[in-house]
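Re: the request from the purification team.
They wanted to know what the chain is likely to look like in 3D before they choose a buffer screen. I agreed to run a prediction and write the result into the notebook, where they can find it.
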Amino acid sequence: MVELREYECVGCGRRVVAPADDTPECCGRSMSQLALEPCTVAPADAEQSRPMDAEDACDDFRGG
């Protein structure tokens, strides 16, 4: 699977999505890579979440 990144042209502001290993060019220069957006999606199910409370049902009270 190819990792994609978003790039922006410093000259004209054009944005493109391209493979991370191949920096595209625009206006005669390499485009700059944009920062990744923070993940704000809640876990879809219990397997994707982490217990954050000490009194959680998954806590086996062994400590550590």
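For the purification team: The mean pLDDT is 79.
Please add any questions underneath this entry.
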